[in-house]
Amino acid sequence: MVEDMTTPLLSDSEAPADALPVCLTSPTVAILGSGDFSRSLALRLVASGVRVVVGSRCVNRIPSGLFPDAVELRNQEGAVSQAVCLVFMAVFPEHYCSLLGLQSALAGKVLVDVSNGAEMNIHGPSNAERLAELFPDSLVVKGFNTVSTWELQTGAHDGSRQVMICSNSTEGKKKVVQLARQMGFHPVDMGGLSAAREIEVAPLRLFPSWSGPVVVTFLLFLFFYGYGFLRGILLPFLAQGGHNAFYRLALDLVNESLPAVALVTLALVYFPGLFAAWLQLWRGTKYQRFPSWLDNWLQRRKQLGLLSFLCAALHGVYSLCLPLRRITLHRLVNTAYRQVKAGTEEPWDELGVWRSDLYLSCGVLGLGVLSLLAITSLPTVGNTLNWREFTFVQSGLGYIALTLSIMHTLFFGWDFAFHIEAYPFYMPPSYLLAVVVPCIVLVCRCFL
Amino acid sequence: MVEDMTTPLLSDSEAPADALPVCLTSPTVAILGSGDFSRSLALRLVASGVRVVVGSRCVNRIPSGLFPDAVELRNQEGAVSQAVCLVFMAVFPEHYCSLLGLQSALAGKVLVDVSNGAEMNIHGPSNAERLAELFPDSLVVKGFNTVSTWELQTGAHDGSRQVMICSNSTEGKKKVVQLARQMGFHPVDMGGLSAAREIEVAPLRLFPSWSGPVVVTFLLFLFFYGYGFLRGILLPFLAQGGHNAFYRLALDLVNESLPAVALVTLALVYFPGLFAAWLQLWRGTKYQRFPSWLDNWLQRRKQLGLLSFLCAALHGVYSLCLPLRRITLHRLVNTAYRQVKAGTEEPWDELGVWRSDLYLSCGVLGLGVLSLLAITSLPTVGNTLNWREFTFVQSGLGYIALTLSIMHTLFFGWDFAFHIEAYPFYMPPSYLLAVVVPCIVLVCRCFL
Amino acid sequence: MVEDMTTPLLSDSEAPADALPVCLTSPTVAILGSGDFSRSLALRLVASGVRVVVGSRCVNRIPSGLFPDAVELRNQEGAVSQAVCLVFMAVFPEHYCSLLGLQSALAGKVLVDVSNGAEMNIHGPSNAERLAELFPDSLVVKGFNTVSTWELQTGAHDGSRQVMICSNSTEGKKKVVQLARQMGFHPVDMGGLSAAREIEVAPLRLFPSWSGPVVVTFLLFLFFYGYGFLRGILLPFLAQGGHNAFYRLALDLVNESLPAVALVTLALVYFPGLFAAWLQLWRGTKYQRFPSWLDNWLQRRKQLGLLSFLCAALHGVYSLCLPLRRITLHRLVNTAYRQVKAGTEEPWDELGVWRSDLYLSCGVLGLGVLSLLAITSLPTVGNTLNWREFTFVQSGLGYIALTLSIMHTLFFGWDFAFHIEAYPFYMPPSYLLAVVVPCIVLVCRCFL
Known about the structure:
Three copies of one chain form a homotrimer.
Chain A: H1 6-14, H2 16-25, E1 29-32, H3 36-47, E2 52-55, E3 72-74, H4 76-82, E4 86-89, H5 103-106, E5 110-113, H6 127-134, E6 139-142, H7 149-154, E7 162-167, H8 170-182, E8 186-189, H9 196-201, H10 208-240, H11 252-283, H12 292-299, H13 301-321, H14 326-342, H15 350-376, H16 379-383, H17 387-413, H18 430-434, H19 436-447
Helix pairs in contact in A: 1-2, 10-11, 10-13, 11-13, 11-17, 11-19, 13-15, 15-17
Catalytic activity (chains A, B, C): 2 Cu(+) + NADP(+) + H(+) = 2 Cu(2+) + NADPH; 2 Fe(2+) + NADP(+) + H(+) = 2 Fe(3+) + NADPH
Domain Ferric oxidoreductase (chains A, B, C): 260-402
Protein name (chains A, B, C): Metalloreductase STEAP3-like
């Protein structure tokens, strides 16, 4: 979107006279360290009209052209002495101790800790807290570690990129917040320095809120796929000695498992809400905390819903692909061939026509309603809704989607579940297993 | 998005005196009332680093653990006396009178009215205005009622949740705006206290801008569905005594009505713009107000367009489902059977092949262009476009989509409309009815 | 989204007392000129609680009712003298000279240049710079030209509409930024006045970052379409004298070209990254600038990826349409007819069944992964990702999508490419051409 950062970058070097008045407004900022992050940070600061001095232990080893011309390169003491108030610590946290000699020079100044956490370990103090211990007379602020060097270089003109900031010093936090805004970022105050650990591990996280729901969905898929394999392919193969239906593995079985997964996952979205409501009724109060597993579950409903939508959409596309399969052509031609051999037209099957039309209709509409739910879960769309609208969409439309999906399954199943042939090896068809939890949820909902 | 208002307001250089109270940091805030909203508000304030005192008439009846430990519980007088400047009124508006005894204690303080409107009635003063009458010496600010208790409890770290605020007191508004930002919300200044009524009913609204377009689309669907039922099912059934085509109700007829609705709705998106242009030409000025019905219509174009896209997309999915139907298999097999009986291959129908390919192509491309339009109507995507790009997409691509949809219909209709068999009971096919308005719009557009 | 600007507009006339305190806070602002932009700007300022005076050379010729009642109309001198600090220049930049008489009256005041650039010419000073030359004693600020009159009138309550601002005067910029926020816009500081040219041409741009990728994609489509036309239609027609396959132009050939385009475009997304990595390895440093063509290419990867997704999605929908074609029915019926004539059922083709299921599966999954990529490229979704998540999605999922697409193509191709019949006129099938670059990219990736 916004990659037009080049102009200010260039205009600075092209027309230094231009930049002057801007520089007068922002007091010089120092950056200790000359690595990648330091370089990108310097670029961004210069582009935002800030005078920057970079302090390094070995200034002479920095290749020329690495930093923009407007940046002054000094040794560490020189850089710190030039900084009016803000000093970025762009060195590895392991090397904080080596800066102890600057303690007095840094006293009273704002030190910005931009380091990431080393591992996901929860124990031990955060880098920023250790820095604050080492430099008790400085105002330590945690921030900018969640921003990548790429974002620093390209800029974020739309100001939507968040920069999480925390500090025990209100004064220091205010200065950094102001600078972050000048750089085009969206500073978010996370509170005191004790929040630093959370900020430090934030860049290491990989979709933390998705891991649980993805695992659940994947296990459900494995279960239904394995069950279908046993019931429809392996056991018949062993029993009938060689009747080979393994060709169903690639598409048929996947398309049989996906709707079951989608249905159960959608039910899992609404189950914890019902359980919570029942718990409140049973306890007689709504002010007691829920057990933490229920709390977690409640907070993952959005992810479960989106995964359910993903499975349902894949099932839809797979089903639409069915007429394109080689086997469909094969069956059609042979059906026609047998009809001709039998010497009669295929009789009109009114019930069969209604059944297929009804389950297709319910499926299409259910998927349509799920799409609306998925769209409103986009941040900007959801933010424009008031509470009543949000409830209408997520609860009202959600239950409509669930009902349509159940009807889709029941019309698909028709009365076949009442015939003994549906239970080879005493195993019910998988859509019958899948429809149990959703039906329970729907019945409970009607009673509550 | 935009919460950097603090800087100019506080900016060190301008008004150092201003910055002081914020640094202290936040003076104690009082909340009167101990209900759900009070509890959630207290949680959020504490989490944002604000000292909170809750005032209740019966402090002893509050269960321990209901409020976080950091919150002080007092009687109402005690709470108000501790509040430095801000007092939240988290009591039912009916009970405002019962607080009249606090009038002098509340004088000069900022009272934040967080109540919702009781009903959708437009008459009578708003709660906030009544509060201002009762406490003439206080600075009444309306706000926070649009935020749900859930959002208060979970926070809104991304600062995108809006809080609408209005007041006759600039001073009071400024304080509340500042607090809202500290809490992570996005305050929006709605002007004087007369805007309070609108703010109070905002949480009661249910998609106000959608009701009109949804009703129009639904009525169009009813019309086309009913028309198709009469023409294709009921009248033939009555005339031929028992020729049963009722199986077409579930899918066929829906899939026949949806494209007609989509086409007419899409034309309705572009009709008011043409009418407005014609009106301006006729009046000879563009500075006269449009009649309000036209104004409303113009403001609903986006919703109409999205509903048209929804119908078109459903039509697309339904059409792709056709080969999956039981009846399709039935027809295919019997066609082959009859071909065999006749003893000849089916002859090559070049025109028929071109016709089907052309109407499928136009349909797919039209839906594709409509999808692009729908995507750019997402807030964040649309906000990145400049006016010229917006016009190019909405008007340029929009008319391309309309043209492709009309071509889709015309290729589908081919020359069948010129044959008498297309008019059973003197009723033209519904696609012929649907294509009239879009054609008029397209022709007018070419002339204007 | 936000079209409820009416209330503040009305509240002015309803409750004049109401408006007073708000007005006291914002010093009077003057607008020179009485055109469309001036009118809309005045509306917006009044709605935001700012006192406005409009200065025009011929006040008497302004029709009554054109400006809201709260706006005062004066001659130019009168308007400027009332302005406390801010004067908007809503006149054509060609007429700036005619205002030279106001030079002393405007001295020390902030002049906001709202003009657009006349053409896309890069040479010559920007309007704002010319204004600054003409009025050296005023503080010239560029801004608001990127906002349309429509947005001014309807307002932007969600504060997401950007207003780009630049100036050499920090003081002036600060005042304008503050006003922009009061008006509900999102001011973005673009630096010194030398950035004015860029801001002035911004509204004239039409998707600048899309033109390159769109042209590339279109040329690729032309190539594959033309190649397919030659190989499959024209040359066979000429060679066999009259074997007419021109019916394939409308759908078949498009659906054959689209996947080839999608595949090559997707490879082009990942090619520059690999080349850049190789360049860094070869140069032995990552701090040397890339050649500008590579830089441009790297910056267009997102657009290329979205166009690849568009082509892939269209290919998907076209393919699903295949069973709906007239020719499909024709072929099916005649296949069955021939089978009957031959007197045998069609034999079971296990390999053919596997092949069709596998290429359909890979295609569906590849498109699904591409959809996830497209969704995360939406600004709000992408902004919530940290760097690690972004890399996982864009690089990890991206290569999975590429691999699945290649497998889709290879399964589709099967072993046909090893038969001589696949090379009529010595021309290989187009999917074979399309799969070359992606395979190279995939192999290079494994090595790097």
